[in-house]
């Protein structure tokens, strides 16, 4: 005869094991659905498709590509380089506040995927990644 | 040619070799003891000496790297890439842990110190656990040493370097000296309870011995880890200019998750010590805590998740995957093997009891940890399964965690008021009456003060007031009982009960600190004000959150390694703050410093967004008022003080003998003979 699970002196009854397993599976499914509903796609420039979807675009800023003023009516443009495939870039149009040190870092903007040539970022959506391990320069070597 | 690379490599390799030998000795000693009590004493002693030896060698290796930084020995590639001659000395020292290789070596160093102290403190207290615990600690040490040597070698050499690349200016901050140290100390310290939990399972000791032996280690590691997490939040608040202190970044989450599970473990072991229950929970929680520490480190260092702190992509990822898999699989097998023997000593008489409350506490903390873990690894999972990465933002975490956190706070208030075995409803109702009144009054005042949304504010602050009132009630009841028994004054009686029950009252103090932290969080979320991207010309004013902010103008100041543009603001109450932009002499490096004016009940927080482009000395800034945020930082200090109080041992004269029901049993004669 199965004993109460609180004593634990015998193996837990099969019904309890099945009930816990079902609860775990159901909880996992609910969690997954919640995550899917609350998530958004994150891509690099190489994954832009030009279908007009709202995505998070992440990449490394190309400092010399920055043009315009972020707070002006026309905003600014800059180029993001793909982290995995550095040959691929995307041009971003952005208006809004700029985080500190954004020029030297990976940034992420949310916006409309209109293709790599013209990604229109939502105003004020830029976030940066703190450069904890960022190396700003190379060591100075003899003869350089 | 510097001898540092050779010396460091030999020391690190020697530490690995000694650790491996010690693992074998420990395992052999444990098996010998199992066959005949005391037969493995010699091998156990060898394993213990191996712990000391490995710790000494890893310390030498770490010292070599530190000396190389101190003397700017650029023959080491790691030194050349993380410091330069002009970096202040303190940042040459902190540069040790500013990169992958050095921080892993530092981790190994701290782990070796914990292992040596744990073995030294516990070697005469439970001889049957000693060989297994030493073997487990040495296995962890061997793993990290091997990873240092193979995948993240800190003693690689370079040549012809005149001056180094330097430490990133953003990391040249006093938090760099303490935040990573606290985190690493906390993470590595949690290896000790893990090792003794494994030892208990291997040795077949299912009482509370391993819990009692590691209680202080767990407490200090947990406390230091929590302090490190709060330091990171403060650093983000001061440096990262997004106006907040927590962004649900994957690496932030990776430190919080093991802390949450460790919190569940810290509470749950109380039940095993006092009632001989929740043994299966405790071994599971301690294994899970250590596995989550490794998972967090994996997420931080492998580069699989783009994150605030992410190291560059490196070869250490698979090492951690292997270790985590081994812990999870091995731990599950051990627990399954010992499942019957881990049965509780007595049944749960009633779920409405202190034991039941602790069980609910375990479930809530585990739920919160699982939710955070799911949101954190979701991008990895989606990328692995579908090739596309999906991320969840801060709003998802906040929305999913509000109710479990509220339930946890309710339990934090209720559990101390509940009796062991069975807590009658009438007794609970009597005990919560006064705290409920306090909570209702505070909730009403919060609504009247203009919290937005009003109902949320009333409920949150009312709940926090309820919890704090239960803490005050516990102190008051204990002091009153002693006062009646001894005739002492109230203050003396309070001091005496705290002194004689440091674990209990230290825990209550920690609860009070947690309330303070949530008061700060709720104040910012529900009472704060924010004005984005305001153009200030000299003399411009704005009223926000009770401050009368006025921009006075700017000045440029030159330092040896940088030029600062400083914008001065006054707050209408006689205080002034400087927001800054720092342009470092090394080309392309600059940073913004926020201006923070701290008052007891609110902060004025000004984020410069950029100097004016028109040349009239104006500045673009975001102005934020963060009410009650001082309670967050103050609450963290109270948590630390409470942890120290709980940790502080009572004098030998006052120590009561342990209760026979679930505490450490009498040692066998063979153990006494060896002691």
Integer average pLDDT of chain A: 78
Strand order of the largest sheet of chain B: 4-5-6-7-8
By DSSP (H or I, 4+ residues per run), the number of helices of chain A equals 1
The span between the termini of chain A is 83 Å
Largest sheet of chain A: 5 strands, mixed, barrel
Q: What kind of oligomer do you see?
A: heterodimer
Strand order of the largest sheet of chain A: 2-3-4-6-5
- Count the helices of chain B. How many? 20
Derived from helix and strand composition plus strand pairing, the structural class of chain A reads alpha+beta
Low-confidence stretches of chain B: 307-312, 657-675
Largest sheet of chain B: 5 strands, antiparallel
Beta-strand content bin of chain B: 5-15%
Q: Write down how many β-strands of chain B occur, each being a DSSP E stretch of 2 or more residues.
A: 11
| SS content category of chain B | alpha+beta
- How far apart the termini of chain B lie comes to 50 Å
Mean pLDDT of chain B: 88
Overall geometric form of chain B: globular
The radius of gyration of chain A is 25 Å
Percent range of helical residues of chain A: 10-25%
Residue ranges of chain A: pLDDT <50 for 5 or more in a row?
Answer: 1-8, 130-136
Element pattern of chain A in H and E: HEEEEEEEE
């Amino acid at each position: 005869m199965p004993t109460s699970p609180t004593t634990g002196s015998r193996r837990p009854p099969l019904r309890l094991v099945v009930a816990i397993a079902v609860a775990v599976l159901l909880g996992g499914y609910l969690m997954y659905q919640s995550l899917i509903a609350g998530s958004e796609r994150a891509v690099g420039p190489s994954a832009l498709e030009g279908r007009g979807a709202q995505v998070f675009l992440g990449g490394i800023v190309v400092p010399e590509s920055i043009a315009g003023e972020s707070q002006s009516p026309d905003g600014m443009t800059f180029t993001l380089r793909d982290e995995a495939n550095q040959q691929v870039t995307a041009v971003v149009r952005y208006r809004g506040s700029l985080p500190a040190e954004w020029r030297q870092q990976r940034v992420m903007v949310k916006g409309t995927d209109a293709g790599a040539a013209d990604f229109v970022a939502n105003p004020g959506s830029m976030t940066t990644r703190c450069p904890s391990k960022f190396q700003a320069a190379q060591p100075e070597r003899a003869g350089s | 040619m510097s001898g540092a690379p050779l010396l460091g490599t030999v020391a690190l390799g020697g530490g690995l070799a000694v650790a491996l030998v010690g693992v074998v000795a420990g395992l052999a000693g444990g098996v010998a003891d199992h066959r005949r009590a005391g037969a493995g004493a010699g091998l156990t002693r060898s394993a213990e000496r191996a712990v000391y030896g490995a710790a000494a060698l890893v310390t030498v290796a770490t010292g070599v790297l530190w000396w190389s930084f101190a003397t700017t020995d650029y023959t080491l590639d790691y030194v050349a890439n993380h410091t330069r001659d002009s970096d202040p000395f303190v940042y040459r020292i902190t540069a040790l842990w500013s990169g992958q290789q050095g921080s892993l070596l530092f981790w190994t160093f701290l782990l070796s110190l914990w292992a040596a102290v744990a073995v030294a403190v516990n070697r005469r207290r439970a001889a049957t656990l000693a060989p297994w615990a030493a073997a487990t600690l040495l296995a962890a040490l061997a793993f990290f040493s091997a990873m240092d040597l193979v995948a993240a070698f800190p003693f690689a050499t370079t040549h012809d370097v005149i001056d180094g690349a330097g430490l990133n200016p953003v990391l040249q901050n006093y938090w760099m000296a303490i935040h990573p140290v606290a985190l690493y100390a906390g993470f590595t310290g949690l290896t000790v309870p893990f090792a003794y939990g494994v030892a208990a399972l291997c040795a077949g000791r299912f009482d509370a011995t391993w819990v009692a032996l590691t209680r202080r280690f767990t407490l200090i590691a947990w406390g230091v880890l929590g302090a490190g997490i709060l330091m990171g939040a403060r650093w983000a608040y001061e440096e990262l200019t997004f106006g907040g202190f927590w962004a649900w970044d994957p690496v932030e989450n990776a430190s919080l998750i093991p802390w949450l599970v460790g919190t569940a473990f810290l509470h749950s072991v109380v039940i095993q010590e006092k009632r001989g229950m929740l043994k299966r929970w405790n071994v599971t929680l301690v294994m899970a805590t250590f596995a989550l520490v490794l998972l967090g480190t994996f997420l931080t260092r492998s580069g699989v998740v783009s994150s605030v702190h992410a190291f560059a992509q490196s070869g250490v990822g698979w090492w951690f995957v292997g270790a985590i898999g081994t812990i999870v699989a091995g731990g599950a097998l051990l627990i399954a093997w010992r499942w019957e023997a881990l049965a509780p000593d007595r049944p749960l008489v009633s779920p409405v009891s202190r034991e039941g409350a602790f069980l609910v506490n375990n479930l809530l903390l585990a739920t919160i940890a699982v939710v955070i873990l799911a949101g954190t690894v979701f991008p990895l999972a989606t990328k692995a399964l579908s090739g596309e990465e999906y991320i969840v933002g801060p709003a998802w975490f906040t929305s999913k965690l509000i109710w479990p956190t509220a339930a946890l706070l309710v339990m934090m208030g209720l559990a101390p008021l509940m009796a062991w075995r069975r807590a009658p409803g009438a007794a609970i109702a009597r005990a919560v009456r006064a705290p409920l009144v306090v909570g209702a009054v505070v909730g009403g005042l919060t609504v009247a003060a203009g919290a937005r949304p009003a109902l949320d504010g009333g409920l949150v602050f009312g709940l926090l007031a309820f919890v704090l009132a239960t803490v005050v009630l516990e102190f008051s009841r204990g002091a009153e009982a002693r006062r009646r028994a001894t005739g002492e004054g109230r203050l003396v009686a309070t001091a005496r009960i705290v002194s004689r029950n440091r674990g209990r009252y230290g825990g209550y103090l920690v609860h009070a600190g947690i309330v303070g932290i949530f008061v700060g969080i709720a104040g910012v979320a529900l009472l704060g004000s924010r004005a984005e991207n305001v153009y200030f010309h000299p003399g411009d004013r704005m009223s926000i959150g009770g401050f009368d902010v006025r921009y006075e103008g700017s000045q440029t100041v030159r330092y040896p390694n940088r030029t600062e543009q400083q914008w001065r603001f006054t707050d209408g109450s006689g205080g002034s703050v400087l927001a800054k932009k720092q342009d470092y002499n090394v080309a392309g490096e600059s940073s913004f410093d926020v201006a923070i004016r701290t008052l007891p009940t609110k902060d004025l927080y000004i984020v410069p967004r950029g100097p004016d482009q028109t040349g009239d000395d104006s500045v673009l800034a975001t102005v934020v008022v963060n009410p009650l945020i001082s309670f967050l930082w103050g609450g963290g200090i109270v948590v630390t003080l409470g942890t120290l109080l709980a940790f502080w041992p009572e004098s030998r004269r006052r120590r009561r003998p342990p209760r026979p029901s679930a505490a450490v049993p009498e040692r066998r004669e063979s153990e006494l003979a060896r002691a």
